[in-house]
Structure formats: structure tokens, C-alpha cells
Amino acid sequence: MIAIGIDVGGTSIKGCAVNEEGKALDSFSMPLNKGDKGLDIVNNLIKITKEYLDFHGYDKSNTLGIGIGIPGSIDSEAGVIDYSNNIDFHNMEIVKMFQEKIDLPVKITNDANAAALGEARFGAGKKFKNIIVLTLGTGVGGGIIINGKLYEGAKGKGAELGHIIISLNGRPCSCGRHGCFEAYASATALVKDTMKAMEEDQNSIMWEIKNENGQVDGRTAFEAAKKGDKKALEVVDNYVSYLGEGMLNYFNIFRPDALILSGGIANQGPFLINKLVKYCQDRDYGYSCTPKVEILVSELGYDSGKIGAASLFFE
Amino acid sequence: MIAIGIDVGGTSIKGCAVNEEGKALDSFSMPLNKGDKGLDIVNNLIKITKEYLDFHGYDKSNTLGIGIGIPGSIDSEAGVIDYSNNIDFHNMEIVKMFQEKIDLPVKITNDANAAALGEARFGAGKKFKNIIVLTLGTGVGGGIIINGKLYEGAKGKGAELGHIIISLNGRPCSCGRHGCFEAYASATALVKDTMKAMEEDQNSIMWEIKNENGQVDGRTAFEAAKKGDKKALEVVDNYVSYLGEGMLNYFNIFRPDALILSGGIANQGPFLINKLVKYCQDRDYGYSCTPKVEILVSELGYDSGKIGAASLFFE
To answer: Which of A115, A189, B88, B306 is the most exposed place for a label (fewest CB within 10 A)?
Structure first.
């Protein structure tokens, strides 16, 4: 049996069939243009999905259902997109619309949840039962896997893992509070901290790296730190302490088997992970009888969203 | 069918039978003295429990098992007390010891987890599915109920809900980190803040209340604030902001159906709860589509530990 996984992104919607081993088959995609009406997007997606199913002979006999990961505020219980920040979705009854045209079960979830489930089920987390996934990007997203199943909270509105205060009255956050984990550990925050440090040290080689790449991004401080730049190392070590403190919070709350990092920053590999492991080990709760949490990096990369959406049928 | 619930406290061990409606029947208790050897405590407890079972005719035919809530670091999977802070328990294989003498299933958990489960199953949380319980006492303890079941994390070491950083480089915590929720929202922290405020305002009526009661405790600032004392109100409002920020963190992580407060401070009733509800409503995540979390107060009080320990068999 296969399941269909669909990942709604900012510039395109991508889908594929996923088999029970988590392998992505027969991809399809549909472009999204700024200004597209939400209703048109969904109707188009249904049409394309239907053609795809017909073309490949996917139907009730061999297909468990269609899972869709969508950015924004998703009511997974009701099957409704409450709203999406960058796409024109408002109170969109997407599950009902799909089921009027396609005779298959349909489930939806938030895109970060879908990616987390994919990683847990078929990626870095496949050996584990209880897993936290943190996605370090523009913001900090995440997913909670308990006993191999996605935990979403009431109406699918939980797992806002970037929105815990780690610093009372700290940096302002897009959510309205001050001091959120996201305001310290996102790529956006790292870029801001990098720029501030560059202003403080005009001789830092971060300036050279900026000139070579044309911009400051989440890699600038890491690249310079690897070359021994002191100011850059300060930025990286501060970043590790912010990220580490948030991770330790999640260790203490969930004592998961593993915590998986995804998003661009996770690609810094051992240089970042070794620092994080050390930071967390030095501050972990309790004595030797407290089980250590494996700190891992995403394995599925950009496929995690599609594979995870399909995994809603493989839980 | 009934289950036996046993609550190990600092000065005594209390037990009872609990029926399927969550009613406590036929209590028993055993004193604990400072300096008692761990092995003697467990052997005594087994003896008393056995006599209790025999006397009341509780056996396999009518009893699901024996649940025990124990303070400290409990490996609930292995059935072992790793260590207890105030009782002489170290690597104590308590489940094995019970089962050698009594022919009933035995389960153990941390005492805060047990109390949370009791409250969730038969107390303030009985109508809800996903629940967070925060116990505000010497520290901040807690429990996580997911789909009506206790979530304990690897080897039962999760749900350390007082040990999340809410203030980077903040107040030192007994766990070794700085800025833990517990260091701001426990009764201990409130007492410290109250004393500091009293030093700052020699005219505060908190001094009178102290003189009447013989000491400063978790009620001092609340009593004075209710009488209109400005400095005391400042203490209370700061406390509400600390507690509120931690609660909002748990709202965003779990989006539970309810959050239940227990411990002495929770007895402040509507004066505290109304302030907390307002604080959280003003700062809650997302738009109107984010479901509100019910903020409730413990209903079972001191019985929650025993009833909760028995509830390990009613999940």
C-alpha cells in the first residue's frame, strides 16, 4: 500500500506517492504564484492530484489516503486551514473539498508537523519512540512525536516549539511576547547577531565572507569561526548557548529518546553538533541515571514534508 | 474492581483502595522517621500492605494492582527507585521486592506524576484529554497527561516541568542551570520575593501579617494584596507574570485542553486565577482560532497522590 504526501510550500506545491518503506515515488508539482486565490489553488491542486492518481492507477485498492502538510494555522481535527501567513487560505475546508472529488481519506497537518513526522517515521528518528524535531529557519518550528505518533494538541494548535520564553522581557517576537526561543535560535536571529558582531569588529573575516557571498546569512559566522575568527566564534558560541538552553528545556519536559535538528543551520554538521552535545551534557538534568538524549540531524532534507504528510497514514 | 494507591511522603506513607469511580476507601498509613534505612522502609511497607490486603480481602479477584508514587528519580520502566532526595532510597528494586511477597501487579511513578494523573483522571481534569498539571510548592513539579495517559519520557525521567529556563542567565536553580521556571514560580521563590519586597517597604502591611502568623510564607503577599497593600500587589503581579509566562510556554508546546494548578499557592483561588487568566489571555498565541486552555485548580488536594498512584491501573 502507498499513501500520497503533499507539501504546500511558498512557491510551489509538491506531491508524491510514498510506500511503506518511506520511499518517495512518482513526484508531481504545481507552481504557486503570488496573488493566487486560495479557492483556485485548492481546486487546481485537486484537479492535478486526480489526474496524477488516475495516471498512476492509485485508488482505494492500493492507496491508504492523501496527507497534506500546509504552512499556517491548521485545524487538523476539522480538516480546515484556519489561515496561512503567505498564501490566501482563510477558513478553507480543504479536506471536504478533496473528498467531494476524490474517493480517498484525506488528512491535513501543519507543514512543520508533517516534516517532523517524516523524519521520525522514516528518517533520523526511525529507531526511536519519543522524538522532538526542531526546524531552524526563518523561525523555529517543530514537531512532537510521542509513541511514534504526531502530538498536535487541541485542534492541531500545539507544538509551537519556537514560542517558549527563554528570556523574560527579552527580544521581541513576532507572536507578541518577548524572549521567545525563536528570537534567539532561528536563522533570522543568527543573521542579526552576526551583523551586530560584524559592526563591532571591522577586522573580522566575516566581512570577507560577506563580500564573497554577496550577503550575510546563517553560514557566515560558522564559516569564519571554522577559520579561527574570534568574533565569529563568539557569535557561534552564543548561538549554541541559546539553542542549547531551548533544547535542554525540551529534554527536561519530554526526556525524549532523540532530538532532531533540521533546517539550513543543521547542515553545519559536526562543528555545530559537537558543540551542542558538549553544551547539553554539561548542563543536563539529574545524575547519571537520567538517560541521555540523542542529538541528531535531519536525514530526509527537503523530502521530509512530503514523506511526513504521507506518514499520517503510516503512524 | 479496585486498585491500591500508595503515596510515599516525607514523614509518612499513606495508602488506600480506590474504586473505578476514583473514590478512596479503607485508608492505611505508616510513619517515616528521619534516618530510617531504605530497605527497612520497603520491607515494612510490604508487610503492612500485605496485612491490609488480607484484612480487607483484596486479592487478584477484585484488585487490579498496586500503584506507588515516590518522590525522587524513579525508573518506572524498570520498577526501580534510582534515588530519593529525602529518603534513603538508592537503586531500590521496589517492584521486584513487592512482587516476591504479594501476588499482584505493581507499578511505580514519581509522586508529582501520580498526583497529576489522579487529578486528570478523577479530579479537575476528568472531562479533558490532554492536561498539564503544575504543582507549586518547594519546587515546581508537574505531570503531563496525553490522551488520558501519563507521559513520563525515557525511563520515567520526563515532565520536569519546573526545569525550563524562562530567564537566560537568571536566578540560580537547584538543578545547576540558571533561570529555571521553578526559581521564579515556586512557593520558595515567592517567599524570597516577598521578603525582599518587605525589606524595601518597611510600612507594608506584610509586616503585620508576618507578625500575626509568626513567619513569611506563600500567603503573606496575597493576604496583604487583597487588603490593598501596594508593595504586596507588586509582588503578586510579578509572581503572576512569572507563573503566567511558564504557563504560556506550556500552552504553546502542548495546547492542552486544561492546565491544573495544585499545591498551597493554588488555594489562593479566584484572586490568583482571575489574574492568571487575564495575563494569559492577553498574551496567548495566534488568533481567535487558537483554542483557549482552561486554567483550573486541583480538586483532590492531598488525596491526589494516592488516587493517582492507583490510577496507574485505570488509564
So the answer is: B88
All residues of chain B having their beta carbon less than 8 Å from the beta carbon of residue A151 are 146, 254
Judge: A176–B283 Cβ closer than 8 Å, yes or no: yes
B245 contact residues in A (CB cutoff 8 A):
165, 168, 177
Query: Residues of A with CB below 8 A from B175's CB?
Result: 285-286
ipTM of the complex: 0.94
Q: Which of B154, B164, B257 lies at the smallest CB-CB distance from A253?
A: B164
Whether residue B257 contacts residue B293, with contact meaning beta carbons closer than 8 Å, is answered with yes
Q: What is the per-residue pLDDT across B123-165, written as a single tens digit (0 to 9) for each?
A: 999 999 999 999 999 899 999 999 999 999 999 999 999 999 9
E strand map for chain A: 2-8, 12-19, 24-31, 63-70, 73-75, 80-83, 90-92, 106-110, 131-136, 140-146, 149-151, 258-262, 294-297
The CA distance from B121 to A90, in Å, is 37
Q: Which residues of A touch B252 (CB under 8 A)?
A: 158, 160-161, 163-164
Q: Are B90 and B83 in contact (CB under 8 A)?
A: yes
Residue A266 near residue A298 (C-beta atoms within 8 A): yes
Question: Cβ separation of A255 and B146 shorter than 8 Å?
Answer: no
The string of DSSP letters for B101-154 reads: H--S-EEEEEHHHHHHHHHHHHSTTTT-SSEEEEEESSSEEEEEEETTEEE--G
A158 touches chain B (CB under 8 A): yes
